[in-house]
Structures are given as C-alpha cells and as structure tokens.
Amino acid sequence: MLTVDEFTEKILHDFKKVFPEVKVGENLIHLGSGVTYVELPLGSMYREYQMTDYCNTKELYVKIASEILNKYKFKVDYANAYPILKRHDFGINSKVQFYREKAFLDIDVLYVSDMGETFRFFTIDDDVEFSLLKKKAIENINRITAALVPLDDGLQAYTLRYTTDYASSLLLSEALNKQIQRKIGDDILIAIPSNSFFLVAKFSYCNQQLLKYLVETDTDPNKVSDSVYRRKEGIYMKVC
After folding, report:
1. Inter-helix orientation angle 54-72/4-15, to 10°
2. How far apart are CA 200 and CA 11, in angstroms?
3. Would you say which domain of life the source belongs to (predicted)?
C-alpha cells in the first residue's frame, strides 16, 4: 500500500494528464484556475484509496472534479460577444486577469459576453479561441447600425443619435468610421468619457476645449477616459 506522500505524488502525476492546472496545497489538491476551480481533500482521497484501490480512487475523483469544473465552466456564445473600450488600468487589481489588447495610447480593448442584464468580461483563463473571439466580436459590433449626428445645433461635435451600452465600442466599427470620415474628415478629435457616450469633432483648439468641457460634465458612472485624443491619418495623440 502506498504511503500518503507516495499516493499524493502518484495522483498528482495522473491528474496532470487530465487537467491543465494542478497544484497541491495544505491537505488539498487544487484543479483549475481563475474563477473556475475545484479543491479535493487529500485525506478523504487517501481514505478512499485505503478502502478500495488506487485506480478506482483516481477515476472517482477525476469524475467528480470534471463534473464540477464543467458545471461552472463559462460557455462562450460568440453571437453575443462584443469589444469594449476601457482605460489601460481598468481591472488591473482584479483577482482575475481580463483578456485585453491595446487599442491606442492608454485605451485597451476588452471583450465581453452580453448576458442580458450584465456583461461578463472574458479572462485569460477562459477556454476560448481568442482569435475567433476577436473576429466575432468585431463582426457583431459592425452589425450595429448607428447614425452620427451633431450633439446640438451650433455645436461642431458629433455623437450617436441614440445611446447604447456599446457606443464607445462603435469607434471600432468600419461603418461608423466611414461616417466619421465623410462628415468630419481624417483629422479629428475623439473623447470617450464613458461606455455609453463618445464625441468626435474636427480638429481645432476651440473644439478641443469644447470636448474637454463635455467630458468633465458627463455623469455616466461607467467611465472610460477623461482625456481628449487627436486622430490624424490613423495616428493617435493625447491633446488634453
């Protein structure tokens, strides 16, 4: 019969053949990572082994762990995946690591699953094909039709006719960028105060100050950036 240490070493070796993340702690074996994991008590496993045999014990706990992990494993629906713009430090101190890429300067692109009442951010630990996720998310944002209109009569700033949770994300939309180019041009100012609101205007000092004022007065709690950016021929710079 195996000692406790021999049993632990052997079952760890076998678990690593089945599960991608296996760690041993104090009287526990930890399987999985991020928000989806299971912890198995070594004492109970060893007692099971003493009453039956090693193979039956291993198969029993592989089955138990697999059922738990599969139950709570995030199931991705690519039809409801969207990109979201956030500041580069958004979620940095979270217990999980969000999957992210740089959009420009201090703005990142994160990806979410629209679950109706809430968003669920994709993490680096999700069982997701990230190249497919990015492709589908951009396809989904491109399907959203949105009209770019003047913010108010007499103002040279533009925004969307209707608000949406994906307003800022539409800056990644090919269709919306064609509208921006047609109505404003290639040398533009962009402000993204929150996820549901963005502003674009032709580059000028006057418009720069206007956008800065509008950013400061935005009350949406889902903040993105307090800055105003200039985009000229695809190159971004922060102007204030």
Report:
1. 50
2. 59
3. Bacteria
- Helix H or strand E encompassing 18: none
Considering the domain architecture, whether residues 226 and 167 belong to the same structural domain is answered as yes
Residue 198, phi then psi, degrees to nearest 5: -140, 165
Q: Nearest Cα to 15, choosing from 65, 74, 56, 49?
A: 65
Neighbours of 142 (CB within 10 A): 14
Domain enclosing residue 57, as ranges = 4-72
34: left (phi over 0), alpha (psi -120 to 50) or beta: left
Return averaged pLDDT per consecutive 10 residues of the chain, 240 residues in all: 92 89 87 77 92 94 86 80 93 86 94 84 87 96 93 86 89 94 95 93 95 90 90 93
Q: Comparing C-alpha atoms, which of 88, 76, 89 is closest to residue 122? A: 76
